[in-house]
Amino acid sequence: MDAALVAEDVRKRYGETTALSGVSLSVDTGEVFGLIGPNGAGKTTLVRALSGTIRYGGSITVLDAEPTEVDRQRIGLLPQSFSPPARLTARELIGYYAGLYDDPRPVVDVLADVGLEDDADTWYENLSGGQRRRTCVGTALVNDPDVLFLDEPTTSIDPAGRRSLWNLIDRLAEGGTTVFLTSHSMAEVERLADRVGMLRDGQLVAAGTPSSLIAEYGGRSRLVVRGTVAPTDVTDSLAEVTHSLADATGFEVTTAGGNVVFSDVTPADIPAAVDALESAAVSYESLTWTEPSLEDVYLSLTGETFEGRRPPGAAVALEDPATASAAAEPTVSADGGNE
Ligand SMILES: Nc1ncnc2c1ncn2[C@@H]1O[C@H](COP(=O)(O)OP(=O)(O)OP(=O)(O)O)[C@@H](O)[C@H]1O
């Protein structure tokens, strides 16, 4: 497949600050590439370099041309911060941007794409934060771009609006649009991106499909048995019990903070673990199965933690051991993690 974007050894300094130090990547036509990384990692700087709005070192081609030479009709850019005139309506703003191109899309179609038909005639200053952001997304769609750069597109958009924007991005990609987006929402990137790049301190430290990154950096799936109590007539040591649980199931079993943890288990393995707990007469409060997610990849590559973060990946809490076998096919929220 043809590459729509190719970056080789891209470098950027702002005075003493190194924002990008040798980033190389390529994005295929029609691919959705998600760029993640901590604040200050260089994501916006890379979007700016790729979209031809800053000078940089190294080499970039977008649609086989240098970023500043590429036909602007073929590029759409949603910057991270965007401050249009406050007393233009959403319709006027999108119409203004449409007027910059020779062959723009009908403004009503763009308003429909971003779900603003009902608020199209409200001044920008009177729109909610999410409606404003959707207006801004609309301005990047007026020229039906072949390559679309979206720098944190869903910031301040509510869950329903976010989902409809995700569906829109899906449709654009299905139609052949190449999408390069940045996001702090791992759920968003996992949902949308064909491939993900992780930027840290101006360097691309990992890139691949979400599943390959999760397999490489996400850690292991686990069944956490909370509030465990060993059978006191046999032993009061949970550590001793773990040996019998490991022997009975063949899994690695450890203890952590009063919990028993089975590692590398699939949902189909849960009944065997429940049977082993019962045979060993271990009582417990609940079972939670977790699988690694992009969030775990992020955490492992940055060493950061998410405040108030729930356990990694899709979680299934099973209060009643009798229901454990039903967990072989757990319901997993597509929205998932932290936003
Ligand atoms: N115009 C500028 N002048 C000086 N320094 C800048 C400028 N733009 C960015 N920087 C610095 O470059 C580094 C990378 O910034 P950048 O905005 O690209 O990061 P980011 O990954 O997009 O961050 P965030 O997630 O917070 O949006 C940061 O240290 C930032 O302070």
Protein model, in words:
A hairpin with a 2-residue loop joins β8 and β9 (203-208). With 339 residues, the chain is an alpha/beta fold. The strands form three sheets. A six-stranded mixed beta sheet has the order 5-6-7-3-8-9, sandwiched between helices. A five-stranded antiparallel beta sheet has the order 11-12-10-13-14, with helices on one face. It contains ten helices and 14 strands. Residues 306-339 have low confidence and may be disordered. The chain has two domains: 3-208, P-loop containing nucleotide triphosphate hydrolases (Rossmann fold, 3-Layer(aba) Sandwich), CATH 3.40.50.300; 217-328, Alpha-Beta Plaits. Helices cover 29% and strands 25% of the residues. The protein starts with a strand and ends in a 21-residue tail after the last strand.
What is the makeup of the main sheet? 6 strands, mixed
Tally the structural domains: 2
- Through-space gap between termini: 33 Å
From the alpha carbons, calculate the radius of gyration and give it in angstroms: 24 Å
What structural category characterises the helix and strand content?
alpha/beta
Q: How many β-strand runs? A: 14
Bound molecule types: adenosine-5'-triphosphate
Low-confidence stretches: 306-339
Strand order within the widest sheet? 5-6-7-3-8-9
Strand-residue proportion: 25-35%
What is the class of the largest domain in the CATH system? Alpha Beta
CATH superfamily of the largest domain: P-loop containing nucleotide triphosphate hydrolases
SS field, number of helical segments: 10
Q: Can you give the helix content as a percent range?
A: 25-40%
What is the overall pLDDT average?
Answer: 87
GO molecular function, one term: ATP binding
Keywords: ATP-binding, Nucleotide-binding, Transport
Domain ABC transporter: 5-226
Organism: Halalkaliarchaeum desulfuricum
